[in-house]
Amino acid sequence: xxxxxxxxxxxxxxxxxxxxxxxxxxxxxxxxxxxxxxxxxxxxxxxxxxxxxxxxxxxxxxxxxxxxxxxxxxxxxxxxxxxxxxxxxxxxxxxxxxxxxxxxxxxxxxxxxxxxxxxxxxxxxxxxxxxxxxxxxxxxxxxxxxxxxxxxxxxxxxxxxxxxxxxxxxxxxxxxxxxxxxxxxxxxxxxxxxxxxxxxxxxxxxxxxxxxxxxxxxxxxxxxxxxxxxxxxxxxxxxxxxxxxxxxxxxxxxxxxxxxxxxxxxxxxxxxxxxxxxxxxxxxxxxxxxxxxxxxxxxxxxxxxxxxxxxxxxxxxxxxxxxxxxxxxxxxxxxxxxxxxxxxxxxxxxxxxxxxxxxxxxxxxxxxxxxxxxxxxxxxxxxxxxxxxxxxxxxxxxxxxxxxxxxxxxxxxxxxxxxxxxxxxxxxxxxxxxxxxxxxxxxxxxxxxxxxxxxxxxxxxxxxxxxxxxxxxxxxxxxxxxxxxxxxxxxxxxxxxxxxxxxxxxxxxxxxxxxxxxxxxxxxxxxxxxxxxxxxxxxxxxxxxxxxxxxxxxxxxxxxxxxxxxxxxxxxxxxxxxxxxxxxxxxxxxxxxxxxxxxxxxxxxxxxxxxxxxxxxxxxxxxxxxxxxxxxxxxxxxxxxxxxxxxxxxxxxxxxxxxxxxxxxxxxxxxxxxxxxxxxxxxxxxxxxxxxxxxxxxxxxxxxxxxxxxxxxxxxxxxxxxxxxxxxxxxxxxxxxxxxxxxxxxxxxxxxxxxxxxxxxxxxxxxxxxxxxxxxxxxxxxxxxxxxxxxxxxxxxxxxxxxxxxxxxxx
Length: 811
Known about the structure:
Elements: E1 8-9, E2 27-28, H1 45-50, H2 55-62, E3 67-72, H3 74-83, H4 86-94, E4 97-100, H5 106-109, H6 119-127, E5 133-140, H7 147-154, E6 157-162, E7 166-168, E8 183-185, E9 189-197, E10 200-208, E11 218-222, E12 233-241, E13 246-253, E14 260-268, E15 273-279, E16 288-292, E17 298-310, E18 315-317, E19 335-338, E20 345-349, E21 359-364, E22 373-378, E23 389-397, E24 404-409, E25 418-423, E26 430-436, E27 445-449, E28 455-467, E29 477-480, E30 493-498, H8 502-526, E31 533-538, E32 559-561, E33 567-569, E34 574-576, E35 580-582, H9 592-595, H10 599-610, E36 616-621, H11 628-645, E37 652-655, E38 658-660, H12 668-690, E39 695-704, H13 712-732, E40 738-744, H14 773-783, H15 797-802
Parallel strand pairs: 3-4, 3-40, 4-5, 5-31, 31-36, 36-37, 37-39, 38-39, 39-40
Antiparallel strand pairs: 1-2, 6-30, 7-17, 8-11, 9-10, 10-17, 11-16, 12-15, 12-17, 13-14, 13-16, 18-28, 19-22, 20-21, 21-28, 22-27, 23-26, 23-28, 24-25, 24-27, 26-29, 32-33, 34-35
Helix pairs in contact: 2-14, 3-4, 3-6, 8-10, 10-11, 12-13, 13-14
């Protein structure tokens, strides 16, 4: 409003109260005052704010040396582009540069196998206006890293040895003494260890007390590392149910996103049975095995769970059906004979096989020569004497002194004998193997001799054929099973780990860092994007200690809180040949400096090598305005990077500046005092940063109020705070060092604040994408003046025509 024009009424306003008074209101102009026009009529603040230009219009006019940016959600931006909603429109209209909040972080792009997925980023780049720059956030952080992939590079090699046919990657799949390694959840369900069930020693006992979705009750084990994409795995387990209508659904899942694959239903009855199916993961992030049992009100007992790659037969097995596994209840062509004194017998019985199923039972009643009791299988054609053959079978005896012999011969003449191999299994199951090359051209029979030691011999899963490996090993082999009970023999499976050296780990991680940074730079180059800047290192300094995360001993800083409020802090990794590597770091946290002490300078060197020369490289951290000690530590961190490089390589330092105005009240004087104190801290921070000679950038500015429904005075205080930041920045950072300011988040809409400052109102647009008081604070701060003073009179119409101002803006 122009101050040389004043409107004065000649008659008192009380005249308006009497409608029956016929006096007429007269207006006059005091001597010496100018003409009054409609432009001189004062506006309400909401009417003023409606007339403001977009933020970036003022930035281009008043601060052409720096860029005002927006930290946004790439997925929301892309969705808004598809639906033509306000989110993208406001972002494009108001800001000169975009920083994707999550889309350029490592865990958003790099998969568990190291592959890169650019779908979200590419869509955002395609939707961005050409005049908007990109700021990369970030290359190296301790959070949101591709932990599974990085761990796989440094983790010891898992060595699985088994005498079974599945190299299981599960821990404690036999439940010998507890349910360690397993977890579960679901209302109305329980999971407990049971010492014995129907002869099975050590089982998982699952109870579901209500009927619902299958996944309402779960029993799971997280896998480390994740299963390999494209590899066929076999799941096998034993189970029974308290009802004949039991149902268990198995699947693979990602423990973070809960996305699942390979769903398969098994009908579980009241008798113990073995269940098996195959699954091939179609992605590299399947790191959880689930048993879903929520659909039937019942009890389940589970034992002997195996998940792994099924070992290929070492021969081209020509035995099939009952000739191999006897599951049809017949001998499948095997026949037996012997000396009358030995009275040998051969029969198939249920429940005696190595998995509690069918098996071949050979009985010898007298100690004699091996050949006094025999069991043989005769082929229709002769074996090829030029080929190496292999026999493999499982056997145990009723006697600890039990002994059985394998041989071959001609089935008609009983001559052409050879390939002798003796095995002493005792009372435990053994896997026995023998390779041989027939010494004759008329061999057509293989046989077991069991007449030496009186007793009963149990044989199962016989396989025979041309060996895939044609090298000949004359020695027979046998592998012992570990016995658990007469009902439940257990394969001897061991998992050990071969550790990598510190230098091997360093080399692997630097290779991954190089590939990650180069991959980003190359992809942006392919898209024709030259980033304005990039956060090469994000948040390297730990709170409190002001030490470097990962690099300084015992310094990490990350933590997780469970549903009961218990907090677990990240700590140093633990590694052994028996248990492998436990990072002791929460989900997707990875402290590069723990394994690569000079990780920071390496990251900058890779970034400078691959990004365009004009892209500015930053170190970024938070709480610098409230912790001078942390600020000093960050500056020393930057100095060390430059020193280790041999010359300055860090272009700028970013300060996030996440402000908290919880103390703001309805009292204007109190709020002014708060802003004054904050300004003192911010002034000092900018001065200290400016003294480094580096570019200075505010990277993630927001101002929280501690409530989702602030008062008018609190909204005004928030606006004053935004204004103060811009003013302090321009006052204390020389223009040559002014990179600019990025506002973190577009609006107060709940979709933007699911994880970051929920139930608050920290941004410059309200939840309906309308301008708040804070919008004025930002614009006035950029301009260095109250831009609203030039509006008046008919400008009030903009408020009603544009409808772009939040109802939270008072008079």
